[in-house]
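Kindly draft a sequence, keeping tokens residue-aligned:
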Amino acid sequence: MRNDVEVLRQARNWSQETLAKSVGVSRQTINAIEAGRFNPSLPLALRLARLFQKPVEAMFFDGHPGK
């Protein structure tokens, strides 16, 4: 699953550590999400979406846009 977490985080000039603390996870978890090595749980995806004021589906998407 692809995501825009890194883009959204960088647009706010936040470190991975800052974002991690904001949503209650480790910096390593944020790094893994941004790298596409880990898909967040639904509760974590919802926390991220709320924090960035975006719908979940606007932040997380499969590799095939338009499908």
Observations:
- The chain is about 55% helix and 5% strand.
- Helices lie at 5-11, 16-23, 27-34, 42-52, 56-59.
- The first strand starts at residue 2 and ends at 3.
